Amino acid sequence: MGNSFSRMALVIAMSSCAVSAALTVDAGADVTTIVGPWASVTGFSGSVTSDDTASYVAAWTKRSGPALGDSIYYPDAQGSKLQFYKPGVYRYLLTVTLGAEVQSDTVKFTVQDSLPLKVLSPSANEKMQRGKPFVFNWQIDPLEASPKMKIYISIDGGKSFIGLKESQTVPPCTLTIPDTLAYSTNCIVKLQKYFISGRSVVSSVFSLIEPVVITPPAAKKSGCGSGAGLAIIPPILFKLAKKRKKKVA
Fold it and tell me: How far, rounded to the nearest angstrom, does the alpha carbon of residue 136 sit from its chain's CA centroid?
């Protein structure tokens, strides 16, 4: 009888060890990323292994980090996406449940601030010519995936905008300025991300002017009537010439 209880206790102990070893969870390596002008999206996925064919339940929860600084997508799945709005250190916990067993692991995201999105061209007080090509340029963090941009122009200081380009990924961008736009000294350019309405940056004030036309100088007229070909004699030489004529006489 004693041997029977010993064998039963051993089986239970081995079964317990098997259950605890059946499920392992890894939230992944720590990540350093940046938060761009409109936030960067990072995909991450935990690693789960199990000897049991039964399905497990995975869940991501935020443990720490700036308030309102991020959004998590697919929190009830092994793989997820995280969108950052503020720099800081964020920690997320991946918890996996398989029957009565629960395993978890934590991953850390260090989010750095990026270079600000900024319009480089047109610059302040620059003069843009109607009907002529112009090179638009802007600054964006090189580590950030280049977003598609819309380019707009305003001739009333930003009260209304006219679209110049619907989709441009990499700066610079050369566009011809419509000759139908009115002249203005109160123009600005707006860059707007293609997929997120309202997220934009504007340029300094510049002017929209008439194309500069260089007129060649008028050709000189020839002929006696116009006085062409007549030499102009300085007064002192004219006096000397008169004296010589008197001596000869």
Answer: 14
- The two tokens of residue 45 are 């996925």
142-193 pLDDT per residue, tens: 656 566 788 999 999 999 999 998 877 778 889 999 999 999 999 999 988 7
Report residue 237: phi and psi, to 5°: -70, -30
> What token pair was written down for 98?
């398989």
Q: Measuring CA to CA, which residue among 100, 104, 62, 68 is closest to residue 84?
A: 68
- The Cα–Cα gap between 138 and 173 comes to 9
Q: What is the mean pLDDT of the chain?
A: 76
List 83's β-bridge partners, or say none: 41, 71
Give the CA distances from residue 184 to residues 35, 43, 135, in Å, rounded to whole numbers and listed in that order.
37, 46, 19
Positive or negative CA dihedral for 118, 120, 126, 128? negative
pLDDT at 2 over 50: no
Cβ–Cβ < 8 Å for 46, 94: yes
Tokens of 240: 């000397």
